């Protein structure tokens, strides 16, 4: 299995989560910033893992632009989505980036492998809540296992 983790990060927390997810996947999976990722990169992978911080209930503008730019290349890919988010009740009213990422890829015909997952930050700029990096690495391992078994 070849996987790629594409992320956007504003305060560095989502980058840390993306790197932890990539480290949990065997085979030298890389975490690549959304600004460095291109549609041609998707031709080499069978699992695309996409993550963004949640801002106003949505992924960042850079992530939204990336998703629009790769629509035709991602139709037949398996996708997993994650975000970083606050745990406050009012945030739930707007929704989370991972859900919107998964919905967008479903609409274009991608297969969403796993329920969208959120990783907790303790404040708008972080830091990550205790244990989230370990949870991200374990999630990467689980994605890898499920994706490999499903093929």
Helix-strand layout with pairing:
Layout: E1 3-7, H1 13-23, E2 30-33, E3 47-53, H2 61-69, E4 78-85, H3 89-92, H4 97-107, E5 111-112, E6 117-120, H5 132-150
Parallel strand pairs: 1-2, 1-3, 3-4, 4-5, 4-6
The secondary-structure element order is EHEEHEHHEEH
Total number of helices: 5
Report, as a whole number of angstroms, the end-to-end distance.
Answer: 9 Å
Number of strands: 6
Strand percentage lies at 15-25%
CATH class: Alpha Beta
The major pleated sheet works out as: 6 strands, parallel
Give the class from helix and strand content and strand pairing. alpha/beta
Helix residue percentage:
25-40%
- What does the oligomeric state look like here? single chain
Low-confidence stretches: none
What is the mean pLDDT?
92
Fourth CATH level, the homologous superfamily = Flavodoxin domain
CATH topology: Rossmann fold
Number of domains: 1
> In the CATH hierarchy, what is the architecture at level 2?
3-Layer(aba) Sandwich
Radius of gyration: 14 Å
Taken from the alpha-carbon principal axes, the silhouette is: globular
